[in-house]
Amino acid sequence: MIHEKKDFTARYGQPLPSSIFTDTALESAPKLLGQTLVRSTEDGEIRCKIVETESYGGVEDKGSHAYGARRTARTETMFHAGGACYVYLIYGMYHCVNVVTGKEHDPQAVLIRAVEPLTSRDAELMKLYRGKLPAGKPANLSNGPGKLCRALRIDKSLNGCQLNQMNGPLYLELGEDVSRLSIVQAPRINIPYADEYAAKPWRFYIKGNPYVSIDDKEAVPYSI
C-alpha cells in the first residue's frame, strides 16, 4: 500500500537538521527513519520514506568496511565529513547506499536498508527502473538495500555526492516527525564475520512498516 502525502506536504522541501550529518552513525541511524530520500532523474523526482537503517560506525566496528582504519579507494568516501553519499557494490551486482555522518577522517556510515515510495507515481517510476518484479508482495520493490538502489537507479556514479545539498541527483529532505514513529532495534543482517559486533543491535526500523526487509521477532523498542 502506498501512503499518499498528508502532513508530509507541510515539510516538503525542507532540509534535515545539520546534526543528523554531524552526529555519529549510531546516533543518526534511527533519526533518519521517516526522512525522505529524493532521487532526481530525467523522468522527474522520486521521493521515498526511509523505513530501515543500519549503523556502521568507527574504526573499531568489525562490521564496517573501514574497520581498523582501512582507508582504500573503496572506503575513502567513508572518511569524508558527514553529508556525503557512500555507494558500493556487493556480490559484483548489487549497489548499496549509505549516508556518511560524523567528522572528517572518522569513518561513520548509515546503510539505508529499505524505503517506501511516498506516492503511486513514485512507485510507478521505481517499478519502471526495477524492471520485472518477482512475484509476491508489492514491498518487494524496495525492501532491501540492493532492491532500492535498482529502483532508484543508484550506482557508483553517485558515490561522494552530497546528500545534504538539495539540488543534486540524490539528496535528503525532512519527512515525518521521527519522535512520533514506533521504532525498534535489532542486530544487523548478514555480517557473521563481525564477531562480537555481529550481535550489536544497530539495525533500526519502523515497526509494522511492510517495506522493512526483515522483521526480527526479538526486536526491542527504541526511543529518541
Share of β-strand residues? 25-35%
- Tell me, rounded to a whole number, the average pLDDT: 93
The CATH architecture assignment turns out to be Roll
Helicity range: 10-25%
Top CATH class? Alpha Beta
Integer tally of domains:
1
Largest sheet: 9 strands, antiparallel
Question: What is the string of SSEs from the N terminus onward?
Answer: HHEEEEEHHEEEE
Total DSSP E strands = 9
* Rg measurement, Å: 16 Å
Q: Can you describe this structure in just a few lines?
A:
The chain has 224 residues and is of the alpha+beta class. It has helices at residues 19-22, 25-31, 120-130, 145-151, and strands at residues 36-41, 44-57, 85-90, 94-100, 108-117, 170-173, 183-186, 203-206, 220-222. Strands 1, 2, 3, 4, 5, 6, 7, 8 and 9 form a 9-stranded antiparallel β-sheet that branches.
